[in-house]
Amino acid sequence: MSVSSFTQVTVDTKANVYFDGKVVSHSVHFADGSKKTLGLIYPGEYHFGTAAAERMEIIAGSCTVRLDGSAENLDYATDSHFDVAANSGFTIIVAEGICEYICSFLA
Fold first, then answer.
1. Could you give the number of structural domains in the chain?
2. Which one of 5, 18, 44, 106 has the lowest number of neighbouring Cβ atoms within 10 Å?
3. Does residue 3 form part of some domain?
4. For the whole model, what pTM was predicted?
């Protein structure tokens, strides 16, 4: 099960808004210098590029993901995750409802 809260963090009040507001997140900064984003993805299909490696944890809802370079679509539901390699990307599809996620930037 994913974590339900974070303590002793700093949160950016300015949202990261993508695709005309269909994907929205806020950045969370930890005392050790690490950063995560917490976000919502509304129904639709979206492509994201990544500079750093990422872990996307699905904390509510569901989605379908196709990693760059793959022809395979994989389904993810609440309490699952997928990893994205650095300098690549992924397409995420939310068919219905809202998909909530935590994105961790991996070293």
1. 1
2. 5
3. no
4. 0.92
Q: Which tokens belong to 12?
A: 């950016």
- 94: which 2 tokens? 């939310």
Q: What counts of helices (H) and strands (E) characterise the chain?
A: 0, 11
User: What is the number of other CB atoms lying within 10 angstroms of the CB of residue 86?
Assistant: 11
CA-to-CA distance for 31 and 74, rounded, in angstroms?
Answer: 34
The 10s digit of each residue's pLDDT in 63-72 is: 999 999 999 9
| Distance from C-alpha of 107 to C-alpha of 5, rounded to nearest angstrom | 22
- Residue whose structure tokens are 């599809």: 93
The residue with tokens 């070293």 is 107
Residue 38's DSSP bridge partners are 26, 102
For residue 4, is it within any domain? no
